[in-house]
Structures are given as C-alpha cells and as structure tokens.
Design goal:
Elements: H1 2-8, H2 11-22, H3 27-31, H4 33-38, E1 40-41, E2 56-57, E3 63-64, H5 79-82, H6 86-92, H7 99-108, E4 111-115, H8 122-133, E5 140-145, H9 148-161, E6 170-174, E7 177-179, E8 186-190, H10 191-200, E9 207-212, H11 220-235, E10 240-245, H12 250-256, E11 262-264, E12 272-276, H13 284-298, E13 303-307, H14 311-331, E14 338-344, H15 350-353, E15 364-370, E16 383-388, E17 391-398, E18 403-410, H16 413-421, E19 429-433, H17 437-443, H18 458-466, H19 483-496, H20 507-512, H21 519-530, H22 534-544, H23 557-565, H24 573-586, H25 591-596, H26 601-620, H27 633-643, E20 647-652, E21 655-658, E22 664-667, E23 682-690, E24 694-701, H28 704-710, E25 715-716, E26 723-724, E27 730-731, H29 738-749, H30 752-758
Helix pairs in contact: 2-14, 8-9, 10-11, 13-14, 18-19, 21-22, 21-27, 22-24, 22-26
Bound molecules: cytidine-5'-diphosphate (CDP) and magnesium ion.
Domain Helicase ATP-binding: 103-266
EC number: 3.6.4.13
Family: Belongs to the DEAD box helicase family. DEAH subfamily. PRP16 sub-subfamily.
Length: 759
C-alpha cells in the first residue's frame, strides 16, 4: 500500500499549484513567503467554544466547516521554556543528571558509545562538559553532524550558552564555509568536512577528542569515518572518540570498536499515544492538513510537528493551512485561536530556519511543517502532537542505470518511532500515523538502509585511494557497500582518468582529490587548465555547486521565465550559468540587479565565495588562471572532456537516449535547449535525475568528433566496432552492464590476481 501511494503523489499539492497559478491576488503571498509564513493567522483571543454548524471533525480526523466543534482552552504551552534562564535550561536537560558519571566513563576509556533520546542534550552539552573538564588543553573538541543545518544551528546555540561570539570559542565548518577562528576550541562540522581533513592530517593531530554525533543516521561520510577513526584510535593513545546515537542499536557501534562501553542517558520522555489510520490514506498531504486543523480546533494545548518529504509538499501544506485558517476565521463570528505556521527544510534560508526555535506569542499554537530534518537532528521544545505521513525522500543511486533517483520511500519502523518520540519531550503527547498499523508492522523495514549501501561512491573511492588504502574491498566498513557499487565507482574514476588500469591513483586523480567536489566536477576544472579556459570553467563549477540561482516565485512563473530566457545561451545550460555570472559581475555584483532579473542574490554570493575558495586551491597547486575570452566553443569542449560518460543522442523532439545504455533521458523544460527549435544531435549533461521521468540536468551541445577524441574508450569515428548510429559516430561498447565492461577492460589490461586484490 505504502509503495503504491508514494508513487501517486499528492492531489492537494497539484491542486494548490493550480490555484496559485490562477489566483493572482495571492501573488505577494509567495513573494513574501518568508515573513508571511511566519505571521500568525488568527485573532487576539482564544475561546472555549465556537459556533455549532461551522466546524465538524470527522471520525478519521477530517475537518468540515459545518457541524459542531469545540475549541479547547488554549494555549501558551511555550511558557515553560520562556521564563527560564539559559543555565536553568541547561540544568534541566536529562544529560545534566549524569554529567559526572559521563565524564568519568570518558576519562577511563578511549572510545565510548553514548545513547540518549533526541533532545536529551548530547549535541549541545557533551562538548561543553568536555571543555569544562579540560579536554581542550592539548587539542580541540570536534563534533560531527550529518547535516549542515544541524552543524550551524547547534554551533550557534552553544556559542550563546557559552556567551561567546559564533566563530570565536565555538565555531562550525561546512563545505565551502568555515566559521572557526584561532581561538575555536569546540568545532561543529559536517562529517564530510572531517573526512576531508583526514587527507591533510591523517592522525587528526589537532583534535584531542572527536564526537561522532548522530551516528544512527549512518550517513555515507559517517560510515567512512568509522573505518578511518578506528585506525586513528589505534595509532594515537592520547586521542578519544565518542559515538552518540539516538537509537538503541548501540551494540553495533560498540562491537565495531571491539566492545567498548555503552552509556545510556536516562530518558525523561513521556508517554506518546499512537493513533493509526484505519485505512491506507490516498493523499497524505491532504490528510496531514486535515489532521493539523482538527488538532488546532479541538485538541488540547501543544505545538504540532508534521513530517513530509520535501519543499513542494511543505509549501503546499503551509499554504493550505493558512487558507483553511482564513476560511475558518471568515466563516465564524467567534475569535479563532492563532496558528503560527513554520516551514523547515534544508534549502530554506538560515534566518527562516531559525524561526522554528522562537516561542510563539501567548495563545498561539505553533505548527512546524518539516522534512526528515526534524526527526533527530533538530530538537524543538513544546511539541505535543506529531503527524507522521510515513514517507521520506531520498536520493538513491541506481548502478544499473548509472543515475541518481530522487524518490519517495516509506520510512522504517525505527524512524517512525523516532518521529513519534518528538511528541513526548515536554509532556504526554500524541502521534498520528497516517498509515495503517498493518503497514507499520508488515511493510516497513526495521531500520533505514545505510546510505553507503545505496549511493554513488566515486568520492569515497577517490578519498580512500589517496589515503593509500589499496584494497577497498578490505576496508573496515561497518556494513560494506555492495561490490557492484564499488566496482562501478572505480570504473567511473577509470573513465575520468583518475585511476589507471590497475586501479592506482593517477596524477589527475591526485589533483582531483584536492577539491571538495564530485570527481567529474574536479576533472572539469583541471581540464579547464589544459584547454586554457580555467577562468570560465571555474565560474561554471561554482555555479553548479549552489542550488539553482533562478528565482521562480509561484504566481510569477511567466515573468520569471522570460527573465531567465534572456540569459540563455542556446547551445548550453552550462554557458547560460557562465553568462549569468559574468553579467552579474559586469553589474558590480549588485543585489538589486539580481532582484530585477529574478536571480537569487544569496545563491550568487555563495557561488562567488565558492569560486574564490576554489581559486585558492588552484593557487596552492600552482595552477594559473587562463581565459578563453569570447571563444566559448572551447568551454563546451572542456565540458565534454569531463562529462562524455553522460553523453546522449537525439531520438525525438526533446527526447534523448543515453549513448551507452540507451536509457531515455529528456530535456528539462527549464533547459536553454528546450523548445527553442535548436536540438543538437549530441549533448552531454551534468546529471540525470529520475523524478516523474528521467531528466537531464544542465545540458550542453557537443560535436560528435569531440566524443571520439575525448572519450575514446566509448566512442570512435572508425568502422571497426559493433554499434552503428545514424550520425557517423560509433560506440566502442554496447554497454548495458558496466560491470561486464569493467571486467572486459580488466581482462585486457590486468591479470586476474590483481583483479582479486585491487578491485
Ligand atoms: O543532541 P540531543 O538530541 O540529545 O539534544 P540537543 O540537540 O543537545 O538539545 C538539547 C536542548 O537544546 C533541547 O531542549 C533543544 O530545544 C535545545 N536547542 C535549542 O534551543 N536550539 C538549538 N539550535 C539546538 C538545541
Ligand atoms: Mg543531537
């Protein structure tokens, strides 16, 4: 049931999109989305009862503005945190009661696993305890987070608790952003940042202790760190490691480090009543909105937390909730309690993200509409109601198709329990599961699949290779990735010229790993040096490292599309990005210019910052900047040299097929190449994503002979090979199964004994 429903998508989301298109009076609403969504809808006072005949709450939680309903005595739940000082709040956390025992265990052991409910104070308090105990005398304290948002928001919170400026004693580092300084002693960072630090400093000398936080999330980088830190622990007797997890599977972590102690922080959670849906719910977005309205109208005080899968659903839900609140207000003479509707997802600007931690004004109820981000990495106090749709969106690599698929999956039972737990932090709460008990028992997996099992490992392979780990199949993974994934990633690196025929790092690969970029992007940069257009390529790579800079507010699609089209370079989305950046530069990097042209100011600033950081790395490698001026054909050729593995050929209007595996891949409607009457025979693309169909993201037209010249392992102009295409270029291999090809390459160039040991 759950799998079927997830594939259908929400009718409410589609309906709201349509409505927003039609309803021009709402134009400003989305323009001001940030501030407006934070606004409180409703009127001053709360009431006991509202008029009969206006609202009805159905058995399954459906709200209807017709029958009888009650407003309970609301609200002011957030009072209990408001009045407390920061130090009182700190002492109130469950972890505080075991502070001394904890420090004792840590001092007696090199590695400790700490288990504690989300919100018990692990992330914000442990670092401070260690600091107070003196662990920063011979090094600093590092704490890793799988999510950037968490690293930033927690560092901010801890700097407040310690009454120091963020970036001073307490700082954070995420990719392309370093908010630490010479006096930083507590450093929060993403697991990816620490992983890259091991390249420069394999023993992590500057740290006296590392906290691997949120280990239960099993992010790719955390999993690789496990293997690497195990070695550091063995080499450095003065180094300590703490692994924290919010779930009870501590044994696995403990066993991995040879049976280290597991410390449980006593929970102080309240009972959470679980309510299941009686039947599978067809449209979980609609159901979530109804449930939230029901709670707001008829439920006791307490804030609401809704789990959805992504930005689109979250925006639609916020919109629907605000609409229904307005409906309610206008359909009754009675005062309606206020509802503060707050979205949170990773792409939301940081200042808006911070709003979820603010207290709602007296009498108002907060309703936080979140992605999985609120499952464990962020703790929000005052939640008494959780509405769990039962789904999560994940990017999963499909090695057969060679593409990432962004898909909605049912969550695991462990996640469902985590989500429910969010309701029991401040008092007994309720969790509404918008799926059946049967689905929970029989359709959900016990725990989430670790990311390492289902993602592209290109970066990891490159990194481990440069850490001189020869045999990847022997690396100490807690749960080894499928061999297919490793082989596939090695194959890709071989294609890019990062690895040689026996799987050793080539010079190009050694340079590629210096950049915090995906392998193909790093190669693109380095090819820019070779083909003498580094300046241009550097800009393109930076632009590809930020979310789309094109701003497309709801209700102003036509206007913003027209603005975007003015930047189009007809043969290339990559060049379109270059064009945008260069025009912005020509206009003195002005913010108002961005606004006038429907461009995201913040995104462009970020791209500029990334550009300067990449430039610094190029300088350390003594690679000089070269310019190609107005000859942008050479830029396209450079793109081709790093992306020939993502080549596609024309099949029909707007329809392409991947040259190697014949998988269909379509131009996205936002592409510069779409619908302009110019459809080149061959293109390369940045990535392919499977959503409703297989779309190519960021496409550039290429000459067929470039493919033959730059990707000789795939393409040739001659006639000595199997598959003939209509347009004069041939493929060397009819590749359906990359692993087969990998083996065939190996047969030609490597002996089977090396095959066994190296691959
Ligand atoms: O890591 P764990 O889930 O055990 O808890 P935590 O993140 O250290 O949170 C402890 C407390 O700090 C909670 O009550 C949070 O509400 C609060 N906190 C906050 O107010 N602002 C943040 N940015 C992070 C945490
Ligand atoms: Mg935490």
């Amino acid at each position: 049931d759950m799998a079927l429903i997830s594939r259908k998508g929400s009718a409410l989301v589609r309906e709201i999109h349509e409505k927003q298109k039609r309803d021009k009076s709402r134009q400003r609403f989305w323009e001001l989305a940030g501030s407006k969504l934070g606004d409180i809808l409703g009127v001053e006072k709360s009431v006991d009862e509202i008029d009969a005949d206006t609202v009805v709450v159905g058995e399954d939680g459906a709200v209807d503005f017709k029958g009888k309903a009650r407003f309970s005595q609301h609200l002011a739940v957030s009072d209990f945190t408001k009045s407390k000082t920061i130090s009182q709040q700190r002492q109130n956390l469950p972890i505080f009661s075991v502070r001394d025992e904890l420090l004792q265990v840590v001092s007696e052991n090199q590695v400790v696993v700490i288990i504690g409910e989300t919100g018990s104070g692990k992330t914000t308090q442990l670092t401070q305890y260690l600091y107070e105990y003196g662990y920063t005398v011979n090094g600093i304290i590092g704490c890793t987070q799988p999510r950037r948002v968490a690293a930033m928001s927690v560092a901010k919170r801890v700097s407040e608790e310690m009454e120091t400026e963020l970036g001073d004693k307490v700082g954070y580092a995420i990719r392309f952003e370093d908010a630490t300084g010479p006096s930083t002693v507590i450093k929060y960072m993403t697991d990816g940042v620490l992983l890259r630090e091991t390249l420069k400093d394999p023993d992590l000398e500057k740290y006296s202790i590392i906290l691997m936080d949120e280990a239960h999330e099993r992010s790719l980088d955390t999993d690789v760190l496990f293997g690497i830190l195990k070695k550091v622990v063995a080499r450095r007797r003065d180094f300590k490691l703490i692994v924290t997890s919010a779930t009870l599977n501590g044994e696995k972590f403990s066993n991995f480090f040879g049976g280290v102690p597991i410390f449980h922080i006593p929970g102080r959670t309240f009972r959470v009543q679980i309510c299941y849906s009686k039947t599978p719910c067809e449209d979980y977005v609609e159901a979530a909105v109804k449930q939230a309205m029901t709670i707001h109208i008829a439920g006791a005080p307490g804030d609401i937390l809704i789990f959805l899968t992504g930005q689109d659903e979250i925006e639609a839900t916020c919109y629907a909730l605000s609409e229904r609140m307005e409906q309610l207000i206008s359909s009754t003479k009675q005062p309606v309690p206020k509802l503060l509707i707050l979205p949170i997802y990773s792409q939301l600007p940081a200042d808006l993200q911070a709003k979820i931690f603010q207290n709602a004004e007296d009498g108002a109820r907060k309703c936080i509409v979140a992605t999985n981000i609120a499952e464990t990495s962020l703790t929000i106090d005052g939640i008494f109601y959780v509405i769990d749709t039962g789904y999560v969106k994940m990017k999963v690599y499909n090695p057969r198709m060679g593409m990432d698929a962004l898909q909605v999956f049912p969550i695991s039972r462990a996640s469902a329990d985590q989500r429910a737990g969010r309701a029991g932090r401040t008092g007994p709460g309720t969790c509404y599961r918008l799926y059946t008990e049967n689905a929970y028992e029989n359709e959900m997996l016990q725990s989430p699949v670790p990311e390492i099992q289902q993602t592209n490992l290109g970066n990891v392979v490159l990194l481990l290779k440069s850490l001189k780990i020869q045999n990847l199949l022997d690396f100490d993974f807690m749960d080894p990735p499928p061999q297919d994934n490793i082989l596939n990633s090695m194959y890709q690196l071989w294609l890019l010229g990062a690895l040689n025929d026996v799987g050793d790092l080539m010079d190009l690969g050694r340079k590629m790993v210096k950049f915090p970029l995906d392998p193909a992007l790093a190669k693109l940069l380095l090819m820019g040096e070779k083909l003498e257009c580094l300046n241009e390529v550097l800009t393109i790579v930076s632009m590809l490292s930020v979310p789309s800079v094109f701003f497309r507010p709801k209700d102003r699609e036509a206007e913003s599309d027209a603005a975007r089209e003015k930047f189009f370079v007809p043969e290339s989305d990559h060049l379109t990005l270059l064009n945008v950046y260069q025009q912005w530069k020509a206009n003195e990097y002005r913010g108002d210019w961005c606004n006038d042209h429907f461009l995201q100011v913040k995104g462009l600033y970020k791209a500029r910052e990334i550009r300067s950081q990449l430039l610094d790395i190029l300088k350390t490698l003594k690679i000089p900047l070269t310019y190609c001026g107005s000859d942008w054909d050479v830029v396209r050729k450079t793109i081709c040299s790093a992306y020939f593995h993502n080549a596609a050929m024309l099949k029909g209007i707007g329809e392409y097929v991947n040259c190697r595996n014949r998988m269909p891949c379509n131009l996205h409607p936002t592409s510069a190449l779409y619908g302009l009457g110019y459809t080149p025979d061959y293109v390369v693309y940045h990535e392919a994503i499977l959503t409703t169909k297989e779309y190519m993201q960021c496409v550039t037209a290429v000459e067929p002979h470039w493919l033959a010249e730059l990707g000789p392992m795939f393409f040739s102009m001659g006639a000595n090979v199997d598959v003939h295409t209509e347009r004069g270029i041939e493929e060397r291999h009819g590749i359906d199964d990359k692993v087969d090809v990998l083996k065939s390459i190996l047969k030609i160039s490597v002996s089977s004994s090396i095959l066994a040991t190296t691959w």
